[in-house]
Automatic annotation (TrEMBL):
Gene Ontology MF terms in the entry: metal ion binding; oxidoreductase activity
Record protein name field: Tyrosinase copper-binding domain-containing protein
PANTHER family: LARVAL STORAGE PROTEIN/PHENOLOXIDASE, PHENOLOXIDASE 2-RELATED
Entries under InterPro entries matching the protein: Di-copper_centre_dom_sf, Hemocyanin/hexamerin, Hemocyanin/hexamerin_mid_dom, Hemocyanin_C, Hemocyanin_C_sf, Ig_E-set, Tyrosinase_Cu-bd
Residues making up the signal peptide according to the UniProt record: none
GO cellular component, one term: extracellular region
Stored Pfam families: Hemocyanin_C, Hemocyanin_M
Cell compartment(s), UniProt: Secreted
Sorted UniProt keywords: Disulfide bond, Metal-binding, Secreted
Amino acid sequence: MTNTMTEGANESLAKLKALQLAKLKYVVKIPPPPKLNLNGWPDKDVYDPELDKMFWWRNDPVLNEFHEHWHFINTGGNDNTRRNRDGEIFIHMHRQILARYDADRLCVGLEKVKALPDFRTPIPDSFYPHPNLFEKWNHTRVHFMARPANQTPHDFVQLIDGEVSIYTISDLEKERQLLIEWIDGGTNIKHPIPLKRVDSDANILGLDIERRFHKFGHNLLSNIMNPYTIGYPTSVLMGARAGIRDPLFLKWHRYVDDIFLRWHNYLGPSDFHHDAPNVTIRTTDIILAFTDVLLKVYPDGQKDKWSEFGKQTFGGSNFDVNFTSGPIITNEFHTKMKYREYIWREDFFDKENITYVFPRDWYYFLRVTNEVNITSFITFRIFIAPEVFSDSIVHWIELDKFKKILQPLEKTVIAREADKSIIIRKPAQKTESQFDESQIIPSLHKVESGPTKQAVSDKLFCHCGWPYHMILPRGTKGEGTKFKMIVFISDGTNDMVPLYDQCGSTSLCGAEKWAEKIPDIRPLGYPFNRPFKDGSYKETFKGLHNAAIRNITIIWKDDDFSEF
């Protein structure tokens, strides 16, 4: 009797939900589907990828694979545990994507990416996913949804675990309002504990934004073309595999980052005098040289990575010589565009010829003086920013971070190769076969479905890192694009930064093992994690003996250069 009653109740509930969904389907207005040609693209007067100046950047397969790997690594554990500082990592990694995107937009003559103005204004950007790009849906593979220009976000319906949910724009606006109240020093029903204005609370805020507001926004924006989501495939904005391909991804993350920046600005400028080791580095102590030039001048130098060569050439009696010009050194970075055949191994093995940026390999030779008669542990932090964006903390691009030991009163020259950067996946991917190693093919998905999320994270960590071929913005032809470079030296005594290089990027992806702490006690993005003094990077770093700033120009070259 009880089972019969239960079955009857379940049947009634199912009918009620079906009726509710039927009504919602009638109420929710679905925009007309975009018109596509047989080749999968719209008419060229609607969208032409060849005229999209940033198509090559957003659609770089290795970049998108990095983003997907990052989300494999940084996820909640099966036992509700979290990776160390994962909220802070979320903000920092996406901020670095935005900084690099804006730098390359500058190089092609575009303005910085603009955040969404709100959730009700039509979105001018269209998005037509590549015809070779498919998603898994209902036990098959279908194309991701396209989005014509000037679409307006809508309230949307979802059926999750049998429960009907309606998500509204008003709900998202309320989430934002509660976040702003919290950031501005208040408390509310969602945030009963005050948010402190200390560096360590970056993780608390980042995690809260990522898990609620950020995901809610992705849901809303991904369902613009199918607000009645039941029975419809999603857009690339759902999931991490291809989101970067859509310009709206960058607009949304600029919106999210602006909220976090509001809190950052409350922290006030950093006082670096509490983190100033007794070392000196000058502007003329930042010396750069291309690897192919070094090989011509002194080929034996590759045996010790030009360490002794650097000391003999730029140290000793030459320690105070200004090497701003000469046949060995460079004041430029060079890039070029390359072509290769890309096979869509994650989809149906279609083949396509793609273009991608590639840097000319270089070495840093950094002269530094230990001013005290004790052994000193120091950490180098290297960043660049377009000169026109240099007063914006969110536009400084991290190039490297590494630790060295100085002997008492030592004056030395430290050689460091670019392709060992803490930012990139290592070993650096430079060849087509190495690029293909990033592809998330079925065998990697088997790893993804491993015993626990913690085990998957540990297994895939070495796959996580910024693509080496995109380590630099492309620059411009001719005279190039002007950048500023800073080498900031922090006290490395107890900062946890290792003396060895790791396979993945501990700066962008977190600690190598689930249970470990990020190997840096300082905030991610340091020393650009707080507002500048008087809004000026010059005022902020003026007079510091442990920081040096120099000019650098990035030139996109027509002629070829050697690769290693």
